[in-house]
Amino acid sequence: MKFIAVRNYEEMSHLAAKFLIKQVLHKPSSVLGLATGSTPTGTYENVIEDHRKNQTSYEQVQTVNLDEYVGLTPTDPTSYRYFMENNLFQHIDIKAKNTHIPNGKANDLQAECSRYEQLLRELGVDIQLLGIGRNGHIGFNEPGTSFQTKTHVIELAESTRKANARFFDSLEQVPNSAITMGIDSILQSKEIILLASGKNKANAIKQLASEQIDKFFPASALHQHPNVTVIADREALTFCDNTEKLQTV
Ligand code: PGA
Question: What is the CATH number of the domain that holds 211?
Answer without folding.
Answer: 3.40.50.1360
